[in-house]
Amino acid sequence: MKIGVFDSGYGGLTILKEIRNRIPQYDYIYLGDNARAPYGSRSFDIVYDFTLEAVKALFARGCQLVILACNTASAKALRSIQQIDLPGMDPTRRVLGVIRPTIEILPRLTKTGHIGLLATRGTVASHSYALEMEKIAPKMKITELACPMWVPLVECNEAQSDGADYFVKKYISQLMDMDPLIDTIVLGCTHYPILLPKILKYAPDEVHVLAQGARVAESLEDYLHRHPEIEGRISRGGTIEYLTTESTDKFNALASLFLDEPVKSTRITLST
Ligand code: DGL
Questions:
Q1: CATH topology of domain 99-212
Q2: I want to staple 251 with a disulfide (CB 3.0 to 4.6 A). Which of 88, 104, 236, 244 is the partner?
Q3: Which tens digit of pLDDT belongs to each residue from 45-66?
């Protein structure tokens, strides 16, 4: 069986890359729902329906474990899928998200206890980061800001263009104005690390910018260590298969740029 990595589009590739760097021995399937991306401004019900369809598709292709490498899906669909759908579908499979592992590392990174969260409208509206933080470090202050222009910039391959500077600077300045004591900015959307060079250009020097990939990879490795009954079912061929709901030509071209290696994808259709 395999490890499935799911995102609305290309963003999850930033997580996949780090996971494969850290634990390359397993077999993986990546699924990008590019035809329906972005998810960030969609309602709870729609993100939940789309995410459940994706999880079912990955299970049908032999995934033992699916990582929702998408904050929006983790915020809006993870709990329901874990608690309501999974027991009826197959209680031996697992679905994990990216928010909890990210939250767990924050108390070690911040000195001021003031965190900035940049994410999609959906993730910000869910307050999932603040709610999770409340459980483990209630004294921390999280200031949340939605950056609705960032995902379209990435999905349209404009992340390195001069035009992108305007929107990167705009949201970083807005966040720092909301709370000048912020010393750690969390990129709470898996698309955002693709804008990292520009984000670092506009973030104050003393502020730490956290991209989630390495942390999620570390947490997954630890999870597999602690769950040999899951780990033992995952095959170790070191392969990767790419699935997209959009045109494969488009996906192959852009995904290859993000991953610095050739990508050959297969198109699939998701439906309930
Ligand atoms: N990359 C996803 C996230 O982490 C979703 C972006 C989107 O589809 O709006 O939130």
A1: Rossmann fold (3.40.50)
A2: 244
A3: 999 999 999 999 999 999 999 9
The domain spans of the chain are 2-98+214-267, 99-212
Return the axis-axis angle of helices 13-22 and 248-259, rounded to nearest 10°. 50
- CATH fold for domain 2-98+214-267: Rossmann fold (3.40.50)
**Cα 119 to middle of ligand 1, angstroms:** 8
List, by residue number, the catalytic residues.
70, 189
Position 120 scores a pLDDT of 93
Q: In angstroms, rounded to a whole number, what is the distance separating the alpha carbons of residues 272 and 270?
A: 7
**Which residue among 50, 120, 187 has the greatest number of ligand 1 atoms within 8 angstroms of its CB, and so is best to mutate?**
120
What's the CA angle centered on 39, arms 271 and 268, to 5 degrees?
Answer: 35
Q: How far is the CA of 12 from the centre of ligand 1 (A)?
A: 8
Over the stretch 219-265, which tens digit does the pLDDT of each residue have?
Answer: 999 999 999 999 999 999 999 999 999 999 999 999 998 898 999 99
Share of the chain above pLDDT 90, in %: 96
Categorize the per-residue pLDDT at 272 as very low, low, confident or very high, splitting at 50, 70 and 90.
low
Bridge partner list, 146: 119
Q: What is the mean pLDDT of residues 112-141?
A: 95
CA–CA distance, 15 with 214 (Å, rounded to integer): 7
